[in-house]
Amino acid sequence: MRRKWAALGLLGRILTVALGLFVGLLLLGGILSAVAPSDGEPDAPAPSETPAVDTSAPLPTHPVKNPTVTATETVTVVPSTPPQPPPTKTVTKTAEAPEPTRTAEAPEPKTTAPAPDVYYENCDEARAAGAAPLHRGDPGYAPHLDRDGDGVACEPYVGH
Hints:
It is a single chain. By secondary structure, the chain is mainly α. Among the domains are: 2-33; 112-160, no CATH class. The chain is built from 3 helices and 2 strands. The protein has helices at residues 2-7, 9-35, 123-128; strands at 134-135, 152-153. It has a two-stranded antiparallel ribbon. The radius of gyration is 46 Å and the shape is flat.
């Protein structure tokens, strides 16, 4: 089949497609003419059972009053203020007693005990206050500081 189609050449293929479309349109026209009325006039409306209206009697004339409506609207423009971010609490260090000498075995304790209502905007603030790493339940711990959700916030980065 492909060889016959290819043997027709470009002009032969174009003529074959055009002939196929022409035959298709003829068939479609024959089907439509058999289904649709051929007189070209629209169908008359079906008779209705409503009583006829006497149009010879004059219509009553009543003067129509067009009411005048006046509407006034007062618009007050109030400049909007941008939303304010929540206030951040900063932790300030107070003067501390000199640190005792430590041995190598003892872990380094946190320098200040944060207040129960401490809020750190980010881990840099927590580290500056000496509170990092924070554990879930510690004052100052917040989910936005715990990126991996393991319960330890502001933990030191360990590169791989």
